[in-house]
Amino acid sequence: MGVIHGIYLDLDDTLCAYWDASKLALRETFDAHGPPGFTVDDMIGAWAQAFRDFSPSLKHTGWYETYLKFGEPTRTEQMRRTLAEIGIEDSELARTLGDAYGAARDRNLKLFPESLEFLDRAKEKGYKLGLITNGPADIQRQEIATLGIERYFDAVLIEGEMGEGKPKPGVFRRAEREFGLSGSEILFVGNSYAHDIAPAIEAGWRTAWIRRPSDVPPSAPTGSGPRSFDDRPDGAPPPDLMTDNLLAVLDWLDRALF
Q1: Which of 8, 16, 9 is nearest to 214 (CA)?
Q2: Cis bond leading into 213, ω under 30°?
Q3: Is the confidence at residue 221, as pLDDT, over 90?
Q4: Which residue has the higher pLDDT, 233 or 114?
Q5: Who contacts 39 (Cβ-Cβ below 8 Å, separation ≥6)?
Q6: CA 249 to chain CA mean position, Å
Q7: Cα dihedral sign for 148, 151, 154, 156?
Q8: What share of the chain is helix, strand, coil (3-state, %, to 5)?
């Protein structure tokens, strides 16, 4: 195994609190623009059900090509389906809700407290840094700009710009070429076992799995609580490191013998 020279990171819920921003944005949006007769919690419940139905099929339907480039159409469709859950058909309201939610989510988006220190220290230590993030091209670029972190990265790989995203093997091969490194010289840091850790292990990379209690989407069943710290599928290979703090990744790299 090679010495680690490059670190790729996921963005949402690894460097920034995406689902926290989403939950706040939904509350603000439905409080300001929700239809009469329905509480904010009613609307969030409808949104969650619509999301559970719509999101899993997104990449296997005609929506995917549009989704890759622009976040607005699928965000509006999500709100249209939310309204349909409560028996309302109103395309204009769906667009208003979608636009308000998108703006509020971006406004509420924040880095985790240790993220900038992690990026600064990693650069000082001489690691190449890269970002691999799934999502629409325009939304992911906006998030990076909102957070002010593009300057840290030697490579930024976005699903919407590549035409494919994690966990596709081609994404990891492309990332290796961007750095000019072999897989054994790269560490991947991410919060999703299925999309980040498992494919990185398969690619021959080292892995650090970030597990945070906030990493629960609004679509999670009511009362489900925080996810288990280690909720890998049975028999799935473990990451090299599992932690709830990015700075522990650098401490581990300082101690690790490869």
Answers
A1: 16
A2: no
A3: no
A4: 114
A5: none
A6: 19
A7: positive
A8: 55, 10, 35
Show the CA angle centred on residue 113, arms to residues 128 and 148, nearest 5°: 55
CA separation, residue 239 to residues 19, 54, 102, 236 (Å): 23, 30, 33, 9
Which residue's structure tokens are 């249209």? 80
pLDDT at position 151: 98
- The answer to whether the beta carbons of residues 188 and 206 sit under 8 Å apart is yes
Residue (of 112, 79, 80) closest to 12 by Cα position: 112
User: For the purposes of burial, counting CB atoms within 10 Å of the CB of 49, is it exposed (0-12), middle (13-18) or buried (19 or more)?
Assistant: middle
**How many whole angstroms separate alpha carbon 195 and alpha carbon 26?**
25
The contacts of residue 73 (CB under 8 Å, 6+ apart) are 63, 66, 67
Are the C-beta atoms of residues 45 and 80 closer than 8 Å to each other? no
Q: How far apart are CA 52 and CA 33, in angstroms?
A: 22
Q: How many CB atoms lie within 10 A of CB 228?
A: 8
Q: By the 8 A CB rule, do 102 and 230 touch?
A: no
Predicted confidence (pLDDT) per residue in 189-204, tens digit: 999 999 999 999 999 9
| pLDDT band at residue 1 using 50, 70 and 90 as cut-offs | low
Tokens standing for residue 174: 């492309």
> What is the strand order of the sheet 241-243 is part of?
155-158, 128-133, 6-9, 186-190, 206-210, 241-243
Least confident of 13-22, 158-167, 216-225: 216-225
Residues 6+ apart with CB under 8 A from 143: 11, 12, 16, 18, 106, 109, 133
Q: What whole-number distance in Å separates Cα of residue 49 and Cα of residue 131?
A: 31
